[in-house]
Design goal:
By secondary structure, the chain is of the alpha/beta class. The protein has 3 domains: 82 residues, Arc Repressor Mutant, subunit A (Orthogonal Bundle); 101 residues, D-Maltodextrin-Binding Protein, domain 2 (3-Layer(aba) Sandwich); 93 residues, Periplasmic binding protein-like II (D-Maltodextrin-Binding Protein, domain 2, 3-Layer(aba) Sandwich). The chain contains 8 helices and 12 strands. The chain has a 5-stranded mixed beta sheet with strand order 4-3-5-12-6, covered by helices on one side. The chain has a 3-stranded antiparallel beta sheet with strand order 10-7-11. Helix 5 links the parallel strand 3 and strand 4. The longest helix is centred in the N-terminal third of the chain and has 26 residues. The radius of gyration is 28 Å and the shape is elongated.
Length: 289
C-alpha cells in the first residue's frame, strides 16, 4: 500500500465505471475524461491499495479476487456518499417525526392528510423508535411525539394536547364487560409497564395502595402479556386507537389524570417546519380532543 497517497472518491468511481462499462474507452466516455486519465486513475488506486484490481485483455476487463471485494465496498461507499449529499441538500424538504408507541394516536391519519395538503413540498415520515425521545436523541428524527417526562435542559418542547387514560384487558377479562374502571380498583391487579417509554408508573397511585408490576420492553411485549389475562395495562388513548388487537379490549379509566402529549426537538438545531407541525397537531387536539 502506498502510504503517501490518499484514497479519493474519484478512484472508486473510476473502478466502478470501468467494470460497469466493460472497457476503459466506455468508462472514459461515461466519466467525461480521456482514456489515459482512466488508466492513470486505476493505476493510482491499485498503487494505493497495493493489489491488482482488474484482469485486462484486449477485449475484456474483469475484476480480480481482490477487485471483487474492493468493488463491493466501493459501491457501498459511493452510495453512502450520495445519500449524505442528498440529505444535506434536501434535508429541509423532509420532516421526520419520531414516536415510541403510537404517533399522534387517533389524529395520525388526519395529520398526515393535512400536512400533505398544506406542505406538499415537505415529505412527512413517521418513525417508530422505542426510546423515551422517540429516536430524537439517536438522530433518527427531526422532532418527536412524547408522552413521558421531558428533559427540558436538552430539548425545546410544546404541549400539543392531552389524552385520557385507558385500561387494556384481555377480551375475556371480567372487567371487559364494564363501560369503565376506576383508578382505585386497578391495584387489585398486576399492571404491566414498559419502564422505558410507557406512560404508567406506580406513582399514579398512593404509596400505600400501589399495584404489583410486571415490566416489558416494548408495546408488542406489553400487548402479549395483557392478552394472557394475568395482568392489565394502563395507557394513553392513543394506544387504544393505534393498537387494536384480537383478544385485547380497552376501557376508560374515568378518574385518572390525563396524559400530556408534547412535541420535542433539538434546541440548537430545529427543523424549519417544526412550528408548523406544532400548530397543526395542537389544532387537531383542540378540534377533536
Amino acid at each position: 500500500m502506498d502510504g503517501n497517497a490518499e484514497l479519493e472518491l474519484r478512484h472508486l468511481r473510476c473502478l466502478v465505471a470501468i467494470v460497469d462499462a466493460g472497457s476503459f474507452t466506455d468508462a472514459a466516455a461515461e466519466l467525461g475524461v480521456s482514456q489515459a486519465a482512466v488508466s492513470r486513475t486505476l493505476l493510482a488506486l491499485e498503487r494505493i491499495l497495493g493489489v491488482q484490481l482488474l484482469h485486462r485483455t484486449s477485449r475484456t476487463v474483469t475484476p480480480t479476487t481482490a477487485g471483487v471485494q474492493v468493488l463491493a465496498r466501493a459501491r457501498h461507499l459511493l452510495a453512502e456518499t450520495e445519500e449524505l449529499v442528498r440529505q444535506a441538500t434536501t434535508g429541509h424538504t423532509r420532516l421526520r417525526i419520531g414516536h415510541a408507541w403510537s404517533a399522534m394516536g387517533r389524529h395520525t391519519a388526519e395529520f398526515q392528510r393535512r400536512w400533505h395538503d398544506r406542505y406538499p413540498d415537505i415529505e412527512l415520515q413517521l418513525i417508530r423508535h422505542n426510546t423515551r425521545t422517540g429516536g430524537l436523541a439517536e438522530g433518527l428524527c427531526d422532532l418527536a411525539v412524547v408522552r413521558v417526562p421531558i428533559d427540558a435542559r436538552r430539548y425545546d418542547h410544546a404541549l400539543v394536547g392531552q389524552e385520557s387514560r385507558y385500561v387494556a384487558l384481555a377480551a375475556d377479562d371480567p372487567w371487559a364487560r364494564r363501560r369503565s374502571v376506576r383508578m382505585a380498583e386497578i391495584p387489585r391487579r398486576t399492571v404491566v409497564v414498559d419502564r422505558g417509554t410507557g406512560t404508567t408508573t406506580t406513582g399514579l397511585w398512593p404509596e400505600e395502595d400501589r399495584p404489583a408490576v410486571e415490566f416489558t420492553q416494548d408495546v408488542d411485549d406489553w400487548l402479549a402479556a395483557i392478552a394472557t389475562g394475568r395482568c392489565v395495562g394502563v395507557t394513553a388513548q392513543s394506544t387504544a386507537t393505534q393498537y387494536r388487537r384480537d383478544g385485547i379490549v380497552y376501557r376508560p379509566v374515568r378518574d385518572a389524570p390525563p396524559v400530556p402529549v408534547h412535541l420535542i426537538w433539538r434546541r440548537h438545531d430545529p427543523h424549519p417546519a417544526t412550528h408548523a407541525a406544532v400548530a397543526l397537531l395542537a389544532d387537531l387536539y383542540r378540534e377533536r380532543g
